[in-house]
Amino acid sequence: MIFWILIAVMTGAAALSVLVPLVRARRRPDGANLTADEAVYREQLDAIESELNRGLIDPEAAQAARTEVARRLLAAHERHEQEPSGRVRGSRLKIVQALALFVLPLAAVGLYLGLGSPDQPDLPLAARLDTPAEEQSVGVLVARVERHLAQNPEDGQGWAVIAPVYLSLGQPEASARAYANAIRILGPRPEWLTDMGEALTIANQGLVVADARRAFEQAVEMDATAVKPRFFLAIALGQEGRKDEAIAAWNELLEAAEGTEAWAGAARRELALLEGTDIEGAQAQSPGPRGPSQEDIAASGDMNAEDRQAMIRDMVSGLAERLASEGGSAAEWNQLMRAYIVLGEKQKAEDALASAQDAYAGKPEDLSLIKDTARQLGLTGS
């Protein structure tokens, strides 16, 4: 019963979508009942007068243009006058109304009864999961694998298969869990460790958290030549303020590269920001990011969690004050935004992004790097 009520409502809406514009068109006053051509030509005449008054065209050209447009306007008006009268249009309107109200619904119902399957029950999810894989959507295929894994949680290969699919669907947390299960069951593999670390990094808005760092480090231990985990570890060093180590890591990556790799451009940009130079190698005016020193990091290890958090806040506050008063490099603004995100102060990160955009409004390349970081951190900006 509900199905037929919905059909009736949808049919009524379709009929109204046809009838309402027709009724409104019929009720328009004659003065407003201009054809599209007439309206266009009238606007052209107004435009000619405007251009003449502004001195954009000379009087002779304006007169010639007016004459041609006026001729077209009269021709359009004459065609309009020769159209059927309002009485004839009214009779046609009634015919259209009758078709929309009676014939259209009856024809739709007849076609559905003849070609459709009104008595066919809904197809449950279980039945859809059992259809051939080539006939299923990605969502159904994922549900199919999930059902299998719920019944066979120790199928490591199944977890390895669904993990990259989760990441492509924008579910990095689920992807990281799937990779962790595959590693637990089948043992660690460099590519799985790297992809798990990447998923954790994406889930944390571009921050290389401790679990991700451990995964990257384990991947490098298994394959010292692997580029992807070393790339993320270099990013982690920069995020932690370990500038010299980060520079060494980027240089090591680039020395072994051919220079045409997809990641090489990003590596060069990160290195240039850390060294305080632009992409072409010219010395920038602002120094590289000044994070906590090695002594600060060593001292923080002896502190309790509350004191360590206070020390971090003091360093972040000092960096923010210096950037506000003296300015700084794009890398320093990126470091400040990341620090605020780590501290859970997203609004301050948004404010830092706004200040950075103002500071680098005239430097599109640096501004692009700042916006890239903002997107990784989930900031909206302007």
Automatic annotation (TrEMBL):
The chain crosses the membrane at residues 6-23, 95-115. Keywords: Cytochrome c-type biogenesis, Membrane, Repeat, TPR repeat, Transmembrane, Transmembrane helix. It comes from the Bacteria. The keyword Transmembrane applies. Residues 137-255 form the Cytochrome c-type biogenesis protein H TPR domain. It is found in: Cell envelope. SUPFAM superfamilies: TPR-like. The keyword Kinase does not apply. This is C-type cytochrome biogenesis protein CcmI. The lineage of its organism: Bacteria, Pseudomonadati, Pseudomonadota, Alphaproteobacteria, Hyphomicrobiales.
